[in-house]
Specification:
The protein is α/β, with parallel strands linked by helices and about 200 residues long. The chain has one domain. The protein has helices at about 30-35, 60-75, 90-105, 115-120, 135-140, 155-160, 160-170, 190-195, and strands spanning about 20-25, 45-50, 80-85, 110-115, 185. A five-stranded mixed β-sheet has the order 2-1-3-4-5, with helices on both faces. It starts with 17 loop residues before the first strand and ends in a 9-residue tail after the last helix.
Length: about 200
């Protein structure tokens, strides 16, 4: 559908802001990474990260935190609500439950990494490969980020490779219709395309 056209506004008019809200499984890691891409305060697009401060990392808890924020802030349909979690220890039933709930809403999205968010970081440096163990991902990631820890890593190096990571993650995507990547993969690239202002595939 084509966007409606508007008459020129007075010079003092401020374009309404669109909010991207991300509830994360992690306490620090995802928030630290996303901080490198946070728009300026006067940008039309605004990013809010809701990290796991209370050790409630279950996917349902992330969704609950996200929806409570949306309710408190009275967010509208054009705003986007994201749950950013890892595959790691959660059961398929747990992940499917949250993924299906998110799929019911056109402005709700799931940025899941399998097996862990460090795989998304890994793609900033290397082509896709298969992993079944998050610790192996971290070991390989440290070849490029030797100092890597959950709460301390080089954002400059990661930011420089984000476009390559998006390309690599898209290339690895096996089934866009699947609720989440069942094999090694990550959909964080879809969130990053939004933050970087790149064209994205609309949710049906």
């Amino acid at each position: 559908m084509a966007k409606p056209s508007f008459a020129p506004r007075a010079s003092g008019f401020r374009e309404p802001k669109t909010f991207i809200v991300v509830a994360t499984e992690g306490r620090v890691t995802e928030e630290h990474y996303l901080s490198a891409f946070k728009p300026s305060r006067d940008a039309v697009l605004q990013l809010t990260v809701l990290p796991n401060r209370n050790n409630k990392s279950h996917p349902r808890e992330c969704l609950k935190r996200l929806r409570q924020h949306a309710k408190d802030k009275n967010l509208a349909g054009d705003d986007q609500l994201w749950v950013m979690i890892d595959r790691d220890q959660w059961s398929e039933a747990d992940l499917n439950e949250v993924a299906r709930e998110l799929a019911k809403h056109r402005n709700h999205f799931l940025a899941l990494s399998n097996p862990c968010v460090e795989y998304w970081f890994y793609l900033h440096f290397r082509d896709p490969r298969s992993f079944t163990d998050g610790q192996k991902v971290i070991r390989d990631l440290r070849r490029h980020l030797p100092e890597y820890s959950k709460d301390n890593f080089d954002l400059v190096k990661l930011k420089a490779g984000v476009h390559k990571a998006i390309e690599r993650a898209k290339r690895q995507e096996e089934d866009l219709k699947a609720l989440w990547p069942k094999n090694t993969g990550t959909r964080v690239y879809q969130l990053m395309k939004v933050l970087l202002g790149e064209p994205t595939q609309k949710k049906r």
